[in-house]
Design a protein that fits this description.
This protein is 19% helix and 37% strand. The chain is α+β, with helices and mostly antiparallel strands. It has two domains: 61 residues, no CATH class; 144 residues, Immunoglobulins (Immunoglobulin-like). Strands 7-15-14-11-12 form a five-stranded mixed β-sheet, with no helix packed on it. The protein has a three-stranded antiparallel β-sheet with strand order 3-4-5, with no helix packed on it. The longest helix is centred in the C-terminal third of the chain and has 43 residues. The radius of gyration is 30 Å and the shape is extended. It is found in: Membrane.
Length: 247
């Protein structure tokens, strides 16, 4: 975005530019994310007049393509797509209500930076670890964080190689929402992060109806199973008595 009222879309490979006339000046960075959940990236433009515009694009969504704040992390200032970073997989970040004692988050570490040998040649396709990975819940109350045998403070681990790694962290004990934040710090101190939102135990009533209905249904089936032989015995005894009385 530029102060002249235009949004400039620039192809880094060819230098070709396309402009969109917003008509309002802006100093803010353009934010990029999937706002509608349709799998496509959207642009968010804020102007000096206090207006916010959302522009749809034809670019496919990927967590490493998003740009959700002016600075990606404490020192993250470069594009990460198809190059270097960590993100929760699409299956882990699906918007849902989590019910249970723990949450499993699959995190993919991508590192396609070339490592150089002392003579300047490429030694391997990736620099390698260690990759220090942390997954925490943000926005959870203090009471929930300190409840139970496993406080909700997040989990951390170090991995020697890129790939998909699964971390499991305790869930809140009460109904709440939280932001799951994934933090990656490499051996050189480069910091990357990814975030997505989930709810916890908000729709617990959907499980409660089964807890109430299933025991009653089971008791009814047991009663019917026990009553059927007894009814047959009574009918047989009554038939014999009636036949004896007629005789």
């Amino acid at each position: 975005m530029s102060f002249d009222g235009y949004l400039y879309l620039i192809d880094g490979a060819t230098g070709c530019a396309h402009t969109v006339d917003i008509g309002e000046a802006s100093y803010a960075a353009v934010l990029v994310d999937d706002l509608g959940g349709d799998g496509m990236l959207d642009l968010v433009v804020a102007t000096m007049n206090g207006n916010i515009y959302a522009l749809g694009t034809a670019a496919l969504y990927h967590p490493l393509k998003t740009w959700t704040s002016q600075v990606q992390a404490t020192n993250g200032l470069v594009a990460r797509s198809n190059y270097f970073g960590a993100f929760a997989t699409l299956q882990s970040r699906v918007a849902r209500d989590v019910a249970g004692q723990s949450l499993r988050v699959a995190v993919e570490i991508l590192d396609r930076r070339a490592a150089l040998a002392p003579d300047g040649r490429v030694a391997n396709a990736s620099r390698g670890g260690p990759y220090n990975l942390t997954v925490v819940l943000r926005g959870v109350g203090v009471a929930d964080m300190n409840a139970g045998d496993a406080p909700i403070i997040g989990v951390a681990d170090a991995f020697a190689a890129p790939g998909v790694h699964i971390l499991e962290l305790p869930c809140p004990k009460s109904r709440t929402t939280a932001t799951v934040r994934v933090d990656l710090v490499d051996a050189n101190g480069l910091h990357f992060q990814d975030e997505f939102a989930l709810s916890f135990h908000v729709h617990f009533h959907k499980l409660l109806k089964y807890l109430v209905a299933l025991p009653l249904l089971a008791m009814a089936l047991v009663a019917l199973a026990v009553a059927a032989p007894l009814a047959a015995d009574y009918e047989g005894a009554g038939y014999v008595s009636l036949g004896a009385a007629r005789a």
